[in-house]
Amino acid sequence: MKEPTEEQIITPGDNENAPSTNEQVGPTREELETLPRIADKIPYTIFMVVIAEAAERFTFRSITGPLQNYVQNPLHDDRLPGALGKGQATATAIGYFFQCWCFLMPILGAVIADCYLGRVKTILLGSITATIGTLILFLTSLPVSLENGAGWPGLLVALIIIGLGYVKYTTRAVNNT
Fold it and tell me: Which SUPFAM superfamilies match (predicted)?
């Protein structure tokens, strides 16, 4: 623990402009010398938020990396990996849409967290939603799904659902408490 500087230590009677006891910000010199330093337990919700945030970032990066090839290139091309064959312009547009969607959805997450559910429940709901979207993307990207035409609609639905689950900036509020 960093020791306070001389200016930060408040000694009663030192200064007429010093805050009253009720407004005291830091410890007094006597408190610094006599009070024991006791570490507290970290709440389990902090661990859950760290896990949710790490999973969210891992998922986001794992999807945005190969998304261009997945949309742009056709399924049975030995030279280029891909699945949907929609071309470069469509692939780029989908990639930018997904990133924009994911960075706008925390606004909705903040409203839900502040007005309705609270931070932890909103993070849990967002994590479940993103997991469902990721599962839809996985299932519709299997070869049998692609051959039956589920790849394109599955991708669009999955990206929207995954974006709805991203409550990134809500997790920062929990990290600060």
Answer: MFS general substrate transporter
> Is residue 59 left, alpha or beta, with left meaning phi > 0 and alpha meaning psi from -120 to 50?
alpha
User: Dihedral of CA 52/65/138/134: which sign?
Assistant: positive
Backbone angles phi, psi at 98, to 5 degrees: -60, -45
Q: How far apart are CA 151 and CA 139, in angstroms?
A: 9
Decide: 75 and 146 in contact? Cβ < 8 Å. yes
What is the rounded distance in angstroms from the CA atom of residue 147 to the CA atom of residue 121? 39
Q: Indicate the range of 122-131, 136-145, 148-157 predicted with least confidence.
A: 122-131
CA 73/CA 81 separation, integer angstroms: 7
Judge whether residue 37 has pLDDT over 70.
yes
Find out whether 136 and 161 touch, Cβ atoms under 8 Å.
yes
**DSSP letters for the chain:** -PPPPTTT---TTS-TTSPPGGG--S--HHHHHHS-----PPPHHHHHHHHHHHHHHHHHHHHHHHHHHHHHSBTT-SSS--BB---HHHHHHHHHHHHHHHHHHHHHHHHHIIIII-HHHHHHHHHHHHHHHHHHHHHHTSHHHHHTT-HHHHHHHHHHHHHHT--HHHHHHHHT-
Residue 119, pLDDT above cutoff 70 = yes
